[in-house]
Specification:
The protein is mostly beta strands. About 5% of the residues lie in helices and about 45% in strands. Strands 1-27-26-25 form a four-stranded antiparallel sheet, with no helix packed on it. The chain has a four-stranded antiparallel sheet with strand order 2-3-4-5, with no helix packed on it. It has a four-stranded antiparallel sheet with strand order 6-7-8-9, with no helix packed on it. The longest helix is centred in the C-terminal third of the chain and has 18 residues. The radius of gyration is 19 Å and the shape is globular.
Length: about 350
């Protein structure tokens, strides 16, 4: 009997309300709310339930560059070009607390898995860690020598990964506050994916610091990345207006999705992986149903596998961490490496 055929990802809903390009999106843990930030200085919280009114939060004095729900969903953090971070209560009142965070644009904000702290990254070349409820600055990480585009906690909260325009991705130990590894233009994670202005996506392993996969898929800069919670898929958003879904275990492109008119600026999976959301310079937020996680490897061949190549440097970096675990099991890592070796062999003439 033939295996059931997986459905393609499908556009479920699109939200209009922003008055300028959408810069960032994030789902609440229960997938009931979706937050988005925009160049219009506003934060929107959309309800996945049809006919529910969206919340528009105003307070930032310049473009909102990043949003992140706390693990409980009771708080929402946003960073802005106005150099501040705000922590909001995502309800109809939309009250917020302001953190005077950095001396330049805040590019990234991310809660630790326990919600007790959050990490920010900025054009002032620093990464900063804050206590959420005490509303207190804790410490700075400052070895980057250019703008820091992104910083995130590992799922266990012990490590922080940061990506910078100095063309490095750095891995930090939170307790010692030391940089434990720096990946320069090549290097490290099935747990870390990085992409930049050179249109490529690289997937690294944090234990062996080995480059596992390298994709040249887009015809313009890659602006956003998000891992599926299973760790088997990665989605990308690009200035070429497309979203692309990669099968990491097979090392191939599964889907190319068209929807945005103009650059796709951001993308994020929901915590379960059932949905993903994208935003674009067309001011739209789109919610897609994934549908593809039921794929039995080998059953679906949507597009030819791209050639595996190793090359070039990374420009304005964006980074994503495998959310459910920092390191894959030995078996899964071994399988991933074996698959990649086979792909490299097939790609060699």
């Amino acid at each position: 009997m033939a295996a059931p055929c997986a459905e393609d990802p499908s556009l479920e809903r699109h939200f209009k309300g922003h008055r300028d390009a959408v810069t960032c999106v994030d789902f609440s843990i229960n997938t009931k709310q979706l937050a988005s930030g925009s160049m219009d200085s506003c934060l929107m919280v959309w309800h996945m339930k049809p006919q529910s009114r969206a919340y528009r939060f105003t307070g930032h004095k310049d473009a909102v560059t990043c949003v992140n729900f706390s693990p409980s969903g009771h708080l929402l953090a946003s960073g802005s070009r106005d150099k501040t971070v705000r922590i909001w209560v995502p309800n109809v009142k939309g009250e917020s607390t302001v953190f005077r965070a950095h001396t330049a644009t805040v590019r990234s904000v991310h809660f630790c898995s326990d919600g007790q702290s959050f990490v920010t990254a900025s054009d002032d070349k620093t990464v900063k860690v804050w206590a959420t409820h005490r509303q207190k600055f804790l410490f700075s990480l400052s070895q980057h020598i250019n703008w820091v585009r992104c910083a995130k906690f590992s799922p266990d909260g012990r490590l922080i990964v940061s990506a910078s325009d100095d063309k490095t991705v750095k891995l930090w130990d939170k307790s010692s506050r030391e940089c434990v590894h720096s990946y320069c233009e090549h290097g490290g994670g099935t747990c870390i994916a990085a992409a930049g202005m050179d249109n490529t996506v690289k997937v690294w392993d944090v234990r062996t610091h080995r480059l596992l996969q390298h994709y040249q898929l887009h015809s313009a800069a890659v602006n956003g990345l998000s891992f599926h919670p299973s760790g088997n898929y990665l989605i990308t958003a690009s200035s070429d207006s497309t979203l692309k879904i990669l099968d990491l275990m097979e090392g191939r492109l599964l889907y190319t999705l068209h929807g945005h008119q103009g650059p796709a600026t951001t993308v994020a999976f929901s915590r379960t992986g059932e949905y993903f959301a994208s935003g674009g310079s067309d001011e739209q937020v789109m919610v897609w149903k994934s549908n593809f996680d039921i794929v039995d490897h080998g059953e679906v061949t949507k597009v030819p596998r791209p050639p595996a190549t190793l090359a070039s440097s990374m420009g304005n970096l964006t980074v994503s961490i495998l959310e459910q675990r920092l390191t894959l099991t030995e078996d899964k890592l071994k399988q991933c490496l074996e698959n990649q070796q086979l792909i490299m062999q097939r790609a060699t003439p």
